[in-house]
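Figure 3 (text version): structure tokens given as input.
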């Protein structure tokens, strides 16, 4: 069992939150609102937000579901759609949940890392929140453990996965302010066909929000400060340590209770075991300091070889596309917002390039569509006049040396076409 170096007597006995967090049998649990009625899952063929067609249900739980969907605006490209049901009946609570959803999704959409799935769109429908992310073919580590554990999994595989998760955490914790996951566990780590893992659901646990007196996370994986509603980046290290302990032993964690591997009949390298237990201190000061230190110690294990997946070629395209958007396209669109003011119906520049829509109007709408297509390695530029079908202006390879000049030329063409369109409307009027 892992104990904190702190004693119960170190705390003010009137501090109920800390007392409950330290005392396992009284620890508050994540809220599980009662359903007034069973939630019907979306049927195959259902169209959401005018573009996402449900292909099949991937998995479902008490608070939501995950679907495979095709985006009809992007040539039926496949994505994953996550639904989170808001069970609040109070209008004020629903409004607060909506605000949390918008805030958290904005943070998630800004995250760009090979071990974090990209969020491409979000919307609210009836009493559910939805967000769309890249589709990962694979299974979560909970399922891998269930199917392949005997009782646990090979140490070199667990360390390989942990290093990838830590790489994502180093990136997320390094944001300003730091982004914490708050719910790392096997079911939130997806293993793809390329042996690359993706850490899903960053910040999602906070969207629907716990009830008063409850905390966010999952029992067994959450340290004391998180159960006292004071999570910090170190809380993710504890959760990863608990996840590694489970994957190696086959035993689901219980609050602050992690038996020695040998007591569970499992042989684990002594140094690896020491690293895991060093991450499982009940309180932050009892743990490994940061994700960088955690990763460095795992990389230095003498008796365990790891084979990290190579660089995903798609990441070069994604990085170049993101750089082209932020350094070239966004400033050009910002100039158009300032230039056209009331004629511009897009007051804020969209964050994603999966489908960027920028609209001017005089009063008929004249829309620029910018679509990123990893399959072809191109960013396509189209314009749409009123109700007519979009017409292609051209395409840009973001890895090309001419990418910047091509984007500037295409935006200039769009502006010229809009001015001609506007003048023709005035003449006809």
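Below: residues designed for each position.
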């Amino acid at each position: 069992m892992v104990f904190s170096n702190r004693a119960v007597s170190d705390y003010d006995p009137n501090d109920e939150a800390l007392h409950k967090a330290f005392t396992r049998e009284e620890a508050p649990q994540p809220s599980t609102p009662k359903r007034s009625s069973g939630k019907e899952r979306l049927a195959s063929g259902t169209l959401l937000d005018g573009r996402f067609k449900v292909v099949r249900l991937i998995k479902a739980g008490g608070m939501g579901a995950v679907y495979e969907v095709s985006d009809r605006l992007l040539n039926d490209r496949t994505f994953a759609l996550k639904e989170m049901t808001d069970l609040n009946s109070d209008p004020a609570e629903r409004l607060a949940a909506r605000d949390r959803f918008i805030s958290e999704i904005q943070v998630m959409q800004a995250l760009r890392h090979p071990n974090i799935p990209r969020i491409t769109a979000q919307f609210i429908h009836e009493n559910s929140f939805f967000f769309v992310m890249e589709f990962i073919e694979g299974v979560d580590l909970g399922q891998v453990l269930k199917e392949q554990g005997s009782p646990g999994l090979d140490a070199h595989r667990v360390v390989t996965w942990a290093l990838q998760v830590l790489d994502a955490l180093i990136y997320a914790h390094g944001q300003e302010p730091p982004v914490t996951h708050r719910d790392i566990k096997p079911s939130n780590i997806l293993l793809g066909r390329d042996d690359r893992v993706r850490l899903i659901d960053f910040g999602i646990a906070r969207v629907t929000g716990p009830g008063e007196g409850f905390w966010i996370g999952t029992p067994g994986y959450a340290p004391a400060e998180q159960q006292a509603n004071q999570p910090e980046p170190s809380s993710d290290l504890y959760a990863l340590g608990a996840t590694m302990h489970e994957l190696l032993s086959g035993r689901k964690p219980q609050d602050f209770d992690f038996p020695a591997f040998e007591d569970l009949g499992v042989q684990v390298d002594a140094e690896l075991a020491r690293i895991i237990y060093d991450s499982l201190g009940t309180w932050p000061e009892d743990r490994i300091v940061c994700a960088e230190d955690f990763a460095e110690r795992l990389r230095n294990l003498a008796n365990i070889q790891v084979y990290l997946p190579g660089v995903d070629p798609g990441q070069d395209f994604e990085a170049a596309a993101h750089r082209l958007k932020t350094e070239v396209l966004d400033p050009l669109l910002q100039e158009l917002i300032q230039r056209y003011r009331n004629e511009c119906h897009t007051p804020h520049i969209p964050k994603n390039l999966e489908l960027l829509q920028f609209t001017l109007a005089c009063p008929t709408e004249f829309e620029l569509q910018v679509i990123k297509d990893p399959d072809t390695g191109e960013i396509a530029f189209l314009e749409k006049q009123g109700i007519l079908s979009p017409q292609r202006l051209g395409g840009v390879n973001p890895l090309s040396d001419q990418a910047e000049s091509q984007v500037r030329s295409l935006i200039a063409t769009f502006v010229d076409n809009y001015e001609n369109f506007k003048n023709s409307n005035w003449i006809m009027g």
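The two ends are 80 Å apart (CA to CA).
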